[in-house]
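pinned: reference chain
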Amino acid sequence: MNNNEVPIKFSEALYLAAEIARHNEAMEAELTELRMNMTKDVLRGPDIVELCGISKSTLSEWAQDPTFPHLRGDWVKGMAIMCRSTDLYQWLKNRKTREINHSFHTRREKQRVI
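pinned: its structure tokens
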């Protein structure tokens, strides 16, 4: 099916949606890679906020996640947030994968109920 064609069948629409999602994920990975190459090795809170385009409150939520890659392993709320850029990139990638898997399994569970 050509990208300019309108899908006729539901299966074609799903296939097209999957292709678009894969393309977007690849572009996002490339953009993140470019950003990581332009950044410092160690990032502080304001660097992370600017780099990821998130709010301070979102960063605070991330920092409280036990899997967040703090530079200091004994981080507690109130301390400065710092991490290595490569660790942050890997954490974001893993986080996105967990979210996709969770979303997929949630949808499958809903389909079983119906």
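why pinned: The longest strand covers residues 42-44. Helices lie at 10-37, 45-52, 56-64, 85-113.
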